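User: I'm preparing a small set of examples for a lab meeting where we compare how different chains pack in three dimensions. I only have the primary sequence for this one, and I'd like the structure in token form so I can line it up with the others. Please keep the answer compact; I'll paste it straight into my notes.
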Amino acid sequence: MPSDYPHLFDDIGFLNRQTQLYTQRRQNSELPENYKFNVEFLLSFVITEFQLITADNITYTHSQLSPSATWTVIHNLGRDVQVRCVDDGDNNIVGEPFNDSANQITITFTTPVAGIAIVT
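Assistant: Understood. Below is the structure token output for the 120-residue chain.
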């Protein structure tokens, strides 16, 4: 199906973080420089405005140095998460995760274990 806006995609391969974009001037007397911004600024605005996930809040790694049957992980990602646990020998270990809140998860194991939890 052809795009309703084919001209929008002709040059999309040339976009980069600093590509200049312009908004429409409200009056012809206004300078175009006042309505200029770049792709990076636009993406930052969209991510903030719509509370999208960014590279900064995609994952969190928790280190459990002392063996414990219960790990409390404060990840501060602001959402329910999934978790993968690995022991000191780099083996996957299975625990029972529970999302306590948007910023904390508790993982329960059958025996005390040390390792890391990779929260996504």
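A couple of notes for your slides: DSSP finds one helix and seven strands in the chain. The beta strands are 20-22, 36-38, 60-74, 83-87, 92-93, 96-101, 104-119.

User: Perfect, thanks.
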